[in-house]
Amino acid sequence: MSTDTVLKALTADIEEVAALVAELDERAWRTATPAPGWTVADQIAHLTFVFNLAKTAAAAPDTFKAIAASASGDFDGAVNAALRQFDGLPPAGLLARFRAEGEASVAALAAVPAGQVVPWLVNPLPPVVLACAGIMELFAHGQDIADALGVRREPTDRLRHLVDFAFLTRDFGYESHGLTPPAGPFRFELTAPSGELWTVGPEDAADVISGPAHDFCLLVTRRRHRADLALTATGEEADRWLDIAQAYRGPAGEGREPGQFTDSAA
Question: pLDDT value at position 99?
Answer without folding.
Answer: 98
